[in-house]
Each structure stands twice: as C-alpha cells, then as structure tokens.
Amino acid sequence: MEVMWGRDGVWLIVVVVGFLYSICEGGSTSSFLRNDYLSLDMPLDSDVFRVPPGYNAPQQVHITQGDHLGKSVIISWITPDEPGSSTVVYWAQDTRLKRQAHGFFVTYRFFNYTSAYIHHCTIENLKFDTKYYYEVGIGNTTRQLWFKTPPPPGPDVPYTFGLIGDLGQTYDSNTTLTHYEESPTKGDAILFVGDLSYADDYPFHDNVRWDTWGRFIERVAAYQPWIWTAGNHEIDFAPQLGEARPFKPYTNRYHVPYKASGSTSPLWYSIKRASAYIIVMSSYSAFGKYTPQYKWVEKELPKVNRSETPWLIVLMHGPMYSSYENHYMEGESFRVMYEKWFVEYKVDVVFAGHVHAYERSERVSNIAYNIVNGLCRPLNDESAPMYITIGDGGNLEGLATAMTEPQPRYSAYREASFGHGILDIKNRSHAYFSWNRNQDGYAVEADSVWLHNKYWTSLEHASLATQRSNNLQQTATQ
Ligand SMILES: *[C@@H]1O[C@H](CO)[C@@H](O)[C@H](O)[C@H]1NC(C)=O
Ligand SMILES: *[C@@H]1O[C@H](CO)[C@@H](O)[C@H](O)[C@H]1NC(C)=O
Ligand SMILES: *[C@@H]1O[C@H](CO)[C@@H](O)[C@H](O)[C@H]1NC(C)=O
Ligand SMILES: *[C@@H]1O[C@H](CO)[C@@H](O)[C@H](O)[C@H]1NC(C)=O
Ligand SMILES: *[C@@H]1O[C@H](CO)[C@@H](O)[C@H](O)[C@H]1NC(C)=O
Ligand SMILES: [Fe+2]
User: Fold this and answer.
1) Apex CA 181: angle with CA 175 and CA 183, to 5°?
2) What confidence score (pLDDT) does residue 25 get?
3) What's the whole-number average pLDDT of the chain?
4) Which cofactor does it need (predicted)?
C-alpha cells in the first residue's frame, strides 16, 4: 500500500505528530488497584514444601539446558539421608532403550547450616523435540519425571518462553507459578531473571529457605528447564558470618552450561534454544572494561548468527531502564557500558527483574552522550531493544509501588502488580509478548505487544528502501 502525499502534506503531518508527541510525556501507568501490603512467606509446613516420601527420596529436582544447542540437560536434585546414587536413568518416550548417565554430588556449609547431598548430572546427545522420561534416586527411593527437548535451532521454529523474576516463596509466588502453569499459552521453558529464594532475608541467611524454595518450584522446574540469571539475593555475601565467598549457595545448587559458550563463570553464559539466542549477564559481577564478563560479551555478540537464531534476548537482574523510585538508576553504570552494543547488534529484548513490578519500554537508546555534547536524553531508536522489567514474581519484600513522575517518554506501560510474562515466538519476524497479572484469570493479558524482529525487519526495510530507490531511478530514467 503506497499512498502518495504532496511534500507539504508530509511535513504538516510530521510537525503535528511531533507536537502531539512533545506535549505528551510518556506512556501509560496502570490505574489497577491492589493491596499494598507486604507479601507473606508460606509457612514451613505448607503443602508446597512437603518432602517427598520414602527413604532418601530425591527432592528439589530441577533441570536446565546442558549445552549450547539444546541436546543436553543438566538434572539436579538433593538427597537428604545419605549421598545415594548420582546416576540418572533416562529414555525417549518412543523407545524402550534405557540409558544411564553418571553425575556427582556436592555439599556446602554456610555459617552453621550444612547442605544435604546436591547431585548434578548432565545427560547428553539427546534427540531434539522429544519427550524423555528420567529417574533419580536409583538404589533408594526412585522417582520418575520427564521433560521435552527443544526443536533444533532454526530461524522459523516457534517456541514459547515464560518470564519470571524475583519469585521468592510467598502465597503470591505460588499464585504466580500457578498462573504460569495454567496459562493457555503453554510455556516450554522459563527465562528466570534472578532473585530465587530470598533466603538471605532470614536471620543468618537461613539456607533452609533455599531448600524449601527448591521443593516449591519442583512442580515446574523438574519438567521444563529454567534458564538461570543471578540476582542480588544470590550474592549471600556475609563476612560477619564468616561467609565472604559470593554466590556460594546459588552456584552449588544451580548449575548452568557456561563452559559450552566459552565463559569462565556460571554467572554469565549463553545458549541457543529453538529460534532464540539467549545471553545471560551478571549485574553483580565485575562488568567494566577489561573484566572477564566484558571480554566474554564483546566476543559473544558478534558470534550470533541471526539467520539461524533470529531472536537475540539478553537477561540480567538490574534493569537499565526503569522509572520506579525503588532501585532508581541502579542499572545506570551497566547501561553506560553495554547499551551501545545492544543497539549495534540489534538485541530484540532485554529482560530484567530487581524492581518488584512490571514495566515495558519503548524502543529507545541513550548512547549519543559524551559528557560535553549535552545529548543525554533517551531518543526513539528502531535499532534499540525493548526493555521489560518483570521483577514481579511475588517475594516477601512486596511491590515497588512508588513511581517517578511524570512517567518518562521511554516508559510505554508500567504497573506494580505481581504476575509473569510469556514470550511467544511465532517465526523469524514476529513474536508476541504478554503479561498476566495475578488478580486476573489465567487467560487475561493485562499488557501485550508484538515484537518485530530487529534483524529481519531492518533487512526488510533495507530491501524495501533499495526497491524504492530502484523504482525512483527507473522513474527518473523513463
Ligand atoms: C544457627 O545459629 C543461630 C543463631 O545462633 C540459631 O538460632 C540456629 O538455630 C542455628 N542453626 C543451626 C542449624 O544450628
Ligand atoms: C541407597 O543407595 C545407595 C546407592 O545405590 C546404596 O549404596 C545404599 O546401600 C542404599 N541405601 C539403602 C538403605 O538402601
Ligand atoms: C499453592 O498452589 C497450589 C496450586 O494452585 C495449591 O494446590 C496449593 O495449595 C497452594 N499452596 C499454598 C500454601 O498456598
Ligand atoms: C548462519 O546460519 C545459517 C543457517 O543455519 C547457515 O546457513 C550459515 O552458514 C551460518 N553462517 C555462519 C557464518 O555460520
Ligand atoms: C510470522 O508470524 C506472523 C504472526 O503470526 C504472521 O502474521 C506472518 O505472516 C508470519 N510470517 C511468515 C513469513 O510466515
Ligand atoms: Fe528482588
């Protein structure tokens, strides 16, 4: 559809739209009314924390992707009474052939807490797009569970990710997880943007709350991979308790395939999954120039082949764009370091948590500033990622309700309610993001947006522009 306008007509529209835009600060702030109290943690004897019956029964079973491509799975679980076996028995749904893989277990101490036996076992060379059954607890109480491997990476492979952040273990956390499970758009894997158990909010960082959290999420995490990002509540830095090694409980309990992407730390790594390339970063590790994380990201971004995995997604805990008062500007130094690259490499979407609320940005960038030129405001930028804060899982610290006013232009929608997101990738050019609020029905989308792939749509625009200029040249020569 090409509509022909006179040159003056076009200018008039540009001026009017520009004027409307300049008098209208920002997007919309939801007027949804909510209870403003702190959320309560579920008590230790809650149903969701029940220990599975049987001698030395495996508990806290959770899985994550085990390699770069999606053909391996890391299976983790905890046995309470004795080490027991670290072996996993597994088989594809359509075969009788049972295979075995042998893992290992670790234990750790934190102040006066001693962990039980934490097993990790990677099962490899799986078939893509296949349901597998697996058994853990061989030799004592054996439990059988299952998962599905993703389809092979490819540009038009549909895939659905759930987005959860700052979950904790309150009644609201349980509602968030239930809404994710009951969503009519079934998620295949969860992108988790950090802050898992909030055990560090308890006296002496009571690590029993890491165990209850592991049992709470098992009902989802044993059946589909959670892609982990570390948040500030994973640091567990407590020199006053003799605990000065950051991330100790987290890195013992939640393993990730960081070596497969050439990373030297489990706190930053990447995976391919279906049509997505996911880069996980660490807001709470050194990220300045020359640091290991910086050097890894610098080599990582140019590696992404958008013809194979069109959707480039970055996960981190602290948001680079957030207009809430809570944690205001905490992501600023990270933005200064990395925003330029995110625009240059056309990252599609950056998901973060930390702020206990929901917010979606316009496509803006703020990379022109050089200290002396005064260009220090975010501008519309079609190459820029969309920034989505989804730190609204429901932890005991409650919601971040105070917002900066007026709502800045870069903020498209914001609301302080608990909930979760779904990123539904349709093909190389289209993905649909929706946000569900816990007070609504499972199928209700309180906010939603179509994402147009930044790599493929910019190619389309470029080829349209080429066609147009070819047409113009033809017209001129006729
Ligand atoms: C750890 O120490 C605290 C403070 O002395 C105490 O309340 C708690 O019961 C201890 N926990 C264990 C497992 O010993
Ligand atoms: C539990 O399993 C381990 C490993 O298979 C075995 O060595 C141990 O004897 C079992 N314990 C009991 C009480 O069956
Ligand atoms: C958590 O949610 C599940 C599923 O909706 C429910 O069965 C369970 O009773 C809930 N537990 C608590 C403590 O609210
Ligand atoms: C990128 O991926 C496509 C599709 O899988 C493949 O044909 C192409 O060779 C890859 N390019 C590079 C540079 O690896
Ligand atoms: C990609 O998906 C969108 C949304 O479902 C659809 O409108 C579009 O036609 C699809 N593109 C291709 C090339 O199939
Ligand atoms: Fe948090």
Assistant:
1) 95
2) 57
3) 93
4) Fe cation; Zn(2+)
Domain ranges across the chain: 152-194+267-466
CA-derived radius of gyration, the chain: 24
How many A from CA of 277 to the centre of ligand 4?
14
Confidence of residue 20 (pLDDT cuts 50, 70, 90): very low
Which residues is 424 bridged to in the sheet? 160, 432
Check if 417 has its Cβ closer than 6 Å to any atom of ligand 2.
no
Note the residue count of the chain. Answer: 478
Answer whether 148's CB lies under 8 Å from 186's CB. no
d(CA 394, CA 218): 17
Q: Is the CB of 113 under 6 A from ligand 1?
A: yes
For ligand 2, whether the C-beta of 54 sits within 6 Å is: no
- Position 263 scores a pLDDT of 98
Give, for ligand 5, the residue of 427, 428, 434, 457 to mutate: max count of ligand atoms closer than 8 Å to Cβ: 427
Indicate which residues carry an active-site annotation. 327
Q: Which ligand is nearest to the CA of 432?
A: 5
What is the CB neighbour count within 10 angstroms for residue 418? 28
Query: Among the CATH numbers 3.30.450.40, 3.60.21.10, 1.20.1070.10, 3.30.420.40, which is that of 152-194+267-466?
Result: 3.60.21.10
Q: What is the DSSP letter of 314?
A: E
The answer to whether the peptide bond before residue 43 is cis (omega within 30 degrees of 0) is no
At residue 458, the pLDDT reads 80
Work out which ligand 2 atom sits closest to the CA atom of 82.
Answer: 1
Residue-wise pLDDT for 203-255, tens only, equals 999 999 999 999 999 999 999 999 999 999 999 999 999 999 999 999 999 99
C-beta of residue 392 within 8 angstroms of C-beta of residue 399: yes
15, burial (CB in 10 Å: exposed 0-12, middle 13-18, buried 19+): exposed
Gap between the Cα atoms of 437 and 302, Å rounded: 36
Question: At residue 468, does pLDDT exceed 90?
Answer: no
Q: What is the structure's pLDDT at 474? A: 60
357-372 pLDDT per residue, tens: 999 999 999 999 999 9
Q: What average pLDDT does this structure show over 252-263? A: 98
